[in-house]
Amino acid sequence: APSENSAPSDITPAAAASSTATTTAPKTITVDDSLPSTSLQIRFADGSRVVARFNTSHTISDVRAFIDTTRPGETSDYTLQVGFPPKPLDDATKTIEEAGVANSVIIQRV
Q: Which residues form the UBX domain (predicted)?
């Protein structure tokens, strides 16, 4: 029990700091600063949005994992779209670079 109590208190300041910055991704996405990176604006189905940093080598699957972690308890049955007119991001194995979505707005549709 003591270790369970000490771990959250160790994490709390960092978690509080990261929650105040909209550009900080949850701990599920690790951005390697030595590799090319990009910012993606993710527009959720409810209209809210968040800006997150990813490496251009992260995949669309990583973006989905970020969304699932950011919105726990919500449906994972959604599509991602990009561009205008919106085009679906169907291939989860493509990297952000391969999909051509660096510095884009990603739209979640349920």
A: 33-109
Residue of 62, 104, 53, 97 whose CA lies nearest to 81 = 104
DSSP string, 36-64: -EEEEEEE-TTS-EEEEEEETTSBHHHHH
> Are the beta carbons of 78 and 109 closer than 8 angstroms?
yes
pTM value? 0.73
d(CA 86, CA 109): 10
For 22-109, give the CATH class: alpha beta
pLDDT digits over 6-48, tens only? Answer: 444 443 334 433 333 344 444 568 999 999 999 999 999 999 9
Where along the chain do its domains lie?
22-109
